[in-house]
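Example record

One chain of 267 residues, shown exactly as stored in the release files.
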Amino acid sequence: MTTASIRRADRRISPVFLGIAAVTAVSGWATWTGFSDNPGLAVFLFVTAAWIVSLCLHEYAHARTALHSGDISIGAKGYLTLNPLKYTHALLSIVLPVVFVIMGGIGLPGGAVFIERGRIRGRWKHSLISAAGPLTNVLFAVVCTAPFWLGALDGVPDAFRYALAFLALLQVTAAILNSLPIPGLDGYGVIEPWLSYRIRRQVEPFAPFGLLAVFAVLWIPEVNGAFFDAIDAILRGLGVDEWDTYWGRDLYRFWDGTEEVPPPLSP
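Predicted structure tokens for this chain:
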């Protein structure tokens, strides 16, 4: 096998990711058309698959930015194939974020791709690599909310509208939480290159627990309430109101057994 063909293989989109994208497309179609007898199941599959797609794109953004910043080992690790099974910690990158969504309807970020930082020169490059992931979530949120802030919801079925709203909520929460300057999260990775060596050494042992700490703090009712008030304000600015996200979450959690169906929106 030649070097060129190896490079092509390193960059070829994996069947695993294509399969996840296919589930997103099919379940999105089922949500739009009302094909499924259980609209909640269709919304669940659509939002979950789309959420995993966004997680893959989040990690891909880190990897692609690292590649262009000097870490040429990225391709050999399989990170450019969008295959979530290639991540350093598939449990943290995919399983836990999905569990968090199922448990509480919140888009906690995952991690991680292993970047050989020693190959990269320049503090701005290191910061940009860390920022690339949350910026991907921001872009995803903009795409999900585009029909809302563009006023292009005429003809969009209610279930699909609610699903988009809930998916947008996940993207906004992921972008904000992952931008926090807490060890282990991308927000800390943005500022880390600008900190002194002594501070970095002192903070390093806490990095593995940053994500869990965020999750624990969000269980505090006052913190949780203030956080989601801020999220709702951002979503309202993007044209998504609380009605949309409420019913999106309600449809997503179809297993609760309430069998409550959202009333049709007024024309």
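Notes: The longest helix spans residues 39-69.
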